[in-house]
């Protein structure tokens, strides 16, 4: 739960400040310098606005894109995200039952490339797009340096952290609009709300309490016994920050994909 909260950027509404730093070996992509596509690539299938099966078609569009997004799509400026590498997540949370300060470093995230699009619902009158996503497993390995309390239980340590999430189902509600980008009409998400559920989760922090095996085992056992309960308590705040990540990924991609190539009038 702790690492999940850090990865999705800790909740600002609870006074939490988290900073994710991209890999220093890669130069940042200047999205505003990437021109929109002019022809439809193999990974982009076209849908008709008046198609009675429009939702199913758009669902297939998303599904077809996932394997390519995992490898990165240079023509629309998206980096590979399988595995997803994050240099550092600085974490400070000073309110509520959970108080933490410190950082995760050298994060490696496996699993996003296995995402399945469960459904899409597009309303072109209300400018609304809803998406259901399923990820069977997410695995994270990182270094950590944390100090604080979890539900009145102290947590202090420096070492390796591992996280395993199983059967993650995500429901995304998006408000969209269709502006012009370099004289092409594109789709952009203006706001987003994310809800999620997961079937199980396990976490392990090595070297807690300066290597005290008894205390370390106690804290890890407590985390695994109460992981879903704690996640449910933070679900709304985690969802808010997931929406920030999902919105950026969607806009980076679709802002360079003219609707004439995938959401056609006739």
UniProtKB/TrEMBL annotation:
Gene3D superfamilies: Haemolymph juvenile hormone binding protein
SMART domains: JHBP
Signal peptide positions on this chain: 1-18
UniProt-listed Pfam families: JHBP
GO cellular component: a single term: extracellular space
Keywords tagged on the record: Biological rhythms, Signal
Origin: domain of life: Eukaryota
GO BP annotations, alphabetical order: circadian rhythm
UniProt record similarity statement: Belongs to the TO family.
Xref: PANTHER family: PROTEIN TAKEOUT, PROTEIN TAKEOUT-LIKE PROTEIN
Name used for this protein in its record: Protein takeout
């Amino acid at each position: 739960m702790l690492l999940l909260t850090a990865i999705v950027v800790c909740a600002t509404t609870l006074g939490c400040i988290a900073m994710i730093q991209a890999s220093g070996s890669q130069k940042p992509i200047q999205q505003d310098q990437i021109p929109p596509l002019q022809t439809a690539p193999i990974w982009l299938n076209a849908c008709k606005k008046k198609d009675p099966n429009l939702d199913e078609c758009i669902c297939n569009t998303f599904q077809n894109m996932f394997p390519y997004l995992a490898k990165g799509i240079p023509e629309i400026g998206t980096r590979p995200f399988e595995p997803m590498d994050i240099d550092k997540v600085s974490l400070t949370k000073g309110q509520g039952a959970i108080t933490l300060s410190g950082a995760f470093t050298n994060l490696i995230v496996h699993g996003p490339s296995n995402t399945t699009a469960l459904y899409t619902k597009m309303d072109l009158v209300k400018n609304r797009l809803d998406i259901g996503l399923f990820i069977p497993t997410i695995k994270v390995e990182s270094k950590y340096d944390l100090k604080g309390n979890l539900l009145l239980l102290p947590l202090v340590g420096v070492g390796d952290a591992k996280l395993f999430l199983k059967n993650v189902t995500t429901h995304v509600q998006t408000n969209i609009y269709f502006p012009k980008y370099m004289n092409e009409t594109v789709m952009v998400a203006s706001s987003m709300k994310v809800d999620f559920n997961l079937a199980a989760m396990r976490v392990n922090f090595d070297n807690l309490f300066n290597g005290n095996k008894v205390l370390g085992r106690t804290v890890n056992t407590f985390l695994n016994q109460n992981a879903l309960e704690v996640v449910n308590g933070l679900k709304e705040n985690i969802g808010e920050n997931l929406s920030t990540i999902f919105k950026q990924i969607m806009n980076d991609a679709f802002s360079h994909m003219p609707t004439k190539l995938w959401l056609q009038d006739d």
